[in-house]
């Protein structure tokens, strides 16, 4: 993004800030007039600072959507939040995992593209105050949702787990929220159903249960067998117990379960490098006319399925692969939140959780009939977490003291089929462990009715360990032998029948002290401004994918922690009771960034260097009449590499697909905008008809560190038409997505710079329509 765009955003925020200040003198009169015409908005409550407050009183950048907001805007899954929240990218389809629910979440340019367990997410995802330790499973349909909150910037002094880029908080309904049934049908044989009910609702005990299922055909066809990729087949359920044994104690127990069993991610062939080893070898052995190996000859540019060239491109919705493709997930958890009000000032809270995640993913990476590279991944994760909080609420002083413990074990099984001469496969059998401990506290003191100051501090200590077996076996499909006992003889040279890493337990520890500070000033009843500084930390770890011995010692290749420091100036304004305007400008210093490069065919994480991230956000909610609602947001982002670190000496293999000074960070578009408008037409007999249109614009985006693959600028249009009966509490909605039928990539990866040479991508589902009926009872 050029300087003019960033300056424009800064001026835009400052102009609105100044106008709201000027407007404050006459706001009382405007508010009175608005009240007379009943053009009012509900007060939005948030828990961003671990206590319930009005959105307009919280001096941090946060986007909030209630269940009603989500339904109104047609947001049914976490990935849809990308369309309405500025500077948030919430993508699915793990390009390295082959799993449909692998999330790639970025806030203000900070996140993580690698969804495998070897690296932590850059953005924390929390469900009912419990941290989700893995990226796989983060892309999900909303269940019995009450609200979502997206917090931008580091949040370590308020949350148990480190959240260097920000946090996505999802809260489900408690007992007493009422009963809802929803059924839907749409194109591609979409069938979905959802039911949530209060089974018991008394002053002392409440029980609520929900269940949902969704099925839809895929939209990419595998030519070899007709399998539809990108299909959906999911089941979710949750039960909640809300118990008040005394007037001072509340116990909230939740159990949740979800499963998916799908054909595989909808990858397609994009292009291939005909001059590198694997395509030349595969073509020669398949009998491609004019191809030979040895000596190596670039793959001829002839239209023959035996040739690994760009004639393998079958279009955006056909897949030419022949290797296995599937995606499954089973995710379950139990949590207990116990709250004890000691007195009017002190509240104690315990948040306990245990979770289990099992998932698989398989893909034909080159997406051709030839064997170049294919992966099969299976993973199981067991996670326990415990958080204790002491919250204080006084006349002028508010704060929280917390202690957090997190323990996780991952067992991964990875097989990578390689089209080397005679073929072979890399086999990885790995156990990874994480143990984390943290102390955190944050306090706010009101110096006056207008001025408040906030300070926070956090200490983090984490231990990561890895143990496994990595080696290569000749001939794809042959039985896997007993593990070798000796290391490979040459660093960087792929060699069968020897270990790439010793079978010892390898351990790294990380610790950090980070802080935050904030000053907020309320100029009048309608305008509040703030300035803040916050620090973030995300621990390092171990790479878990190897194609060769990379260190003579046989140690796995480790990467260090990354850090961020964020400066932010923002405002919250309510010029009138029918208008809310919130904005912020920020600058982040992002160091030791964990980015994925290629070492041979293996994607490995390195601390790539430093970047400066500057940007701005503006969110507007406006009700010009009782019947009309306007949502508007804009995000500006300049996220480029300032310096690049030197990669270690890895023998015969040199990392490729590396970042360079001036490259943009992955999933960091320079600008994005959303505009949504709806109007309620009141009809006889208590009927209402509500048309809505949503337009989202996003500038170009890159999916990788080297800026080698991405998507150009995009304008996406969605819309709906809803008929409701307000007396009978039912709604029927016709919704259209991608109304202009745009063709665009949502994910992709490339190994064009390696010996495998392939590039693959996933296009968005074409224009589609669905019909949904909902009733509250």
Describe the secondary structure blueprint for this structure.
Layout: H1 3-23, H2 27-36, E1 45-46, E2 53-54, E3 62-66, H3 67-72, E4 88-91, E5 104-107, E6 110-111, E7 124-127, E8 130-131, E9 145-152, E10 166-172, E11 180-186, E12 190-201, E13 205-216, E14 220-222, E15 228-229, E16 232-246, E17 249-262, E18 268-272, H4 277-286, E19 318-319, E20 326-341, E21 346-364, E22 373-393, E23 397-418, E24 424-446, E25 451-474, E26 506-524, E27 527-538, E28 541-542, E29 558-559, E30 562-576, E31 579-591, E32 594-599, E33 602-607, E34 609-622, E35 628-644, E36 671-679, E37 681-683, E38 687-698, E39 701-702, E40 710-711, E41 714-725, E42 730-737, E43 745-750, E44 758-763, E45 768-776
Parallel strand pairs: 7-10, 14-19
Antiparallel strand pairs: 1-2, 3-9, 4-5, 5-6, 7-8, 9-10, 11-12, 11-45, 12-13, 13-16, 14-15, 16-17, 17-20, 18-44, 20-21, 21-22, 22-23, 23-24, 24-25, 25-26, 26-27, 27-30, 28-29, 30-31, 31-34, 32-33, 34-35, 35-36, 36-38, 37-38, 38-41, 39-40, 41-42, 42-45, 43-44
């Amino acid at each position: 993004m050029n300087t003019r765009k960033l300056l424009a955003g800064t001026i835009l925020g400052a102009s609105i800030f100044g106008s709201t200040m000027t407007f404050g003198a006459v706001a009382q009169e405007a508010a009175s007039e608005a009240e007379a015409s009943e053009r009012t908005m509900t007060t939005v409550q948030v828990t961003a600072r671990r206590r319930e407050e009005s959105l307009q009183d919280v001096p941090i950048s946060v986007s909030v959507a209630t269940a009603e907001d989500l339904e109104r805007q047609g947001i049914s899954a976490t990935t849809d939040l990308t369309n309405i929240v500025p500077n948030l990218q919430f993508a699915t389809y793990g390009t390295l995992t082959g799993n449909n629910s692998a999330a790639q979440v970025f806030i203000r340019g900070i996140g993580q593209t690698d969804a495998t367990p070897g690296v932590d997410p850059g953005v924390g995802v929390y469900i009912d105050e419990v941290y989700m330790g893995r990226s796989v499973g983060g892309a999900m349909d909303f269940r019995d949702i009450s609200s979502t909150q997206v917090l931008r910037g580091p949040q370590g002094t308020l949350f148990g787990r480190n959240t260097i880029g920000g946090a996505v908080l999802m809260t489900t309904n408690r007992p007493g929220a009422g009963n809802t049934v929803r059924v839907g049908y749409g194109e591609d044989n979409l069938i979905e159903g959802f039911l949530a009910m209060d089974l018991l609702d008394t002053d002392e005990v409440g029980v609520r249960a929900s269940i949902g299922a969704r099925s839809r055909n895929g939209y990419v066809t595998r030519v070899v067998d007709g399998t539809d990729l990108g299909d959906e087949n999911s089941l979710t359920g949750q039960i909640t117990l809300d118990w008040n044994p005394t007037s001072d104690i509340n116990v909230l127990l939740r159990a949740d379960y979800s499963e998916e069993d799908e054909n595989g991610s909808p990858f397609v062939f994009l292009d291939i490098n005909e001059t590198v080893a694997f395509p030349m070898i595969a073509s020669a052995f398949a009998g491609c006319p004019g191809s030979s190996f040895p000596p190596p000859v670039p793959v001829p540019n002839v239209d023959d399925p035996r040739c690994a060239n760009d004639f393998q491109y079958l279009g955006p919705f056909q897949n030419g692969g022949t290797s296995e493709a599937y995606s499954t997930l089973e995710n379950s958890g139990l949590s207990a939140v116990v709250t004890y009000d000691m007195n009017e000032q002190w509240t104690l809270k315990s948040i306990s959780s245990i979770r289990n995640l099992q998932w698989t993913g398989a893909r034909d990476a080159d997406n051709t009939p030839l064997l170049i590279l294919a992966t099969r991944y299976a993973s199981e994760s067991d996670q326990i977490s415990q958080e204790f909080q002491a919250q204080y609420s006084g006349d002028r002083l508010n704060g929280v003291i917390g202690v957090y413990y997190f323990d996780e074990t991952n067992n991964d099984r990875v097989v990578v089929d390689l089209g080397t001469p005679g073929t072979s496969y890399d086999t990885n059998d790995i156990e990874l462990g994480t143990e984390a401990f943290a102390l955190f506290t944050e306090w706010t003191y009101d110096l006056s009715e207008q001025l408040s100051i906030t300070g926070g501090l956090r200490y983090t200590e984490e231990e990561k360990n890895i143990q496994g077996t990595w080696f290569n076996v000749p001939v794809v499909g042959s039985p896997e032998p007993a593990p070798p006992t000796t290391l490979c003889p040459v660093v960087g040279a792929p060699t069968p029948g020897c270990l790439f890493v010793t079978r010892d337990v390898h351990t790294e520890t990380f610790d950090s002290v980070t802080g935050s500070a904030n000053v907020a000033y309320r100029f009048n009843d309608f305008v509040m401004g703030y300035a803040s500084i916050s620090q973030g930390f995300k621990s390092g770890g171990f790479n878990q994918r190897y194609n060769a011995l990379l260190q003579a010692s046989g140690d796995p290749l480790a990467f260090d922690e990354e850090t961020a420091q964020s400066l932010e100036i923002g405002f919250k304004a309510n010029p009138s009771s029918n208008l809310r305007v919130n904005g912020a400008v920020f600058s982040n210093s992002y160091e030791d960034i964990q980015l994925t490069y290629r070492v041979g065919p293996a994607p490995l994480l390195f601390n790539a260097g430093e970047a400066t991230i500057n940007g701005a956000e503006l969110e507007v909610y406006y009700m010009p009449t009782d019947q009309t609602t306007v949502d508007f947001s804009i995000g500006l982002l300049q996220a480029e590499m300032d310096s690049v670190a030197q990669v270690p000496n890895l023998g015969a293999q040199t990392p490729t697909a590396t970042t360079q000074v001036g490259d943009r960070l992955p999933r960091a578009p320079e600008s994005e905008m959303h505009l949504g408008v709806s109007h309620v037409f009141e009809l006889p007999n208590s009927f209402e008809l509500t048309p809505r249109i949503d337009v989202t614009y996003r500038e170009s985006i890159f999916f990788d560190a080297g800026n080698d693959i991405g998507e150009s600028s995009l304008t996406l249009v969605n819309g709906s038409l809803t008929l409701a009966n307000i007396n009978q509490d039912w709604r029927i909605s016709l919704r259209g997505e991608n109304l202009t039928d745009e063709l665009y990539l949502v994910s992709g990866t490339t190994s064009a710079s390696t010996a495998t040479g392939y590039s693959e991508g996933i296009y968005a589902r074409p224009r589609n329509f669905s019909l949904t009926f909902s009733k509250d009872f």
